[in-house]
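Go through this one:
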Amino acid sequence: MSSNPSILASEDVHKNADIIGHDISCIIWLDANVNTNERRSAEQKLASIVKHFEKFQDKEQCQKYIEEQSEKDRLVMIVSGQLGKEIVPSVHNLQQVMSIYVYCMNKEINKQWASRFIKVKGVVVQLDELISRITIDHNIQKTMKEPLPTTNVTAHADKGKRGNVVDDEILKLAKNEIICALRLEKHEIKDTIINDLLENGRQALSKYKDEFAPKVYTAAINENDGQLMKSLKKYFEQQWKIKYGSSNQWFISFLEEYKDA
């Protein structure tokens, strides 16, 4: 797959703090040697979250299709290792591309190039893991914009567990940390940038690239252990805990998998 490895930094909050609250418009599967039975099985198992699949064996045709889609669409890509390496740099920064999964035979080799791209949510070798990752990520993304459950907030507050509540103090702290990380103190549109980041994750930063000094932008968009990502992860984790608590097994699995992401 193919082009600019700056590549947005997930999203992680989810490796995954990144693309939130949208339904999947289409799953695009690019593989020169696609296994028809596997693909059919995946379509059946993912039918509950998406109805539209597009299959490609040719990289150019696939890229043309993606580029022709509206920026309002939300596309999920499944790509093979080699074709992924060629096409991902070319389509990664397109607004309509929501997330990418590399389904391959050699996980370690493909993780080397895939790790540079924040929208690559997983490099997997098993079909069941691929389906599980897409489903879990979709659940997170779809529910992030649901209203916060008032009963949960009240219950947590009554117990004095302020650490589990996304309150004004936590929001203020997150905003101040982002201001420092991005040097936004005197920026005219700092509130717009911050609100976009807190709503849509680090990938939203790509829309404001020209607003930053090159070194500041490059560090913020690429460093998964930098101050921006730490702040976003902490903020989103508080939201998740309020919404899902400890009763949802898929959420517990998600946090366990990504706790060190």
The longest strand covers residues 97-103. Residues 150-258 form one domain.
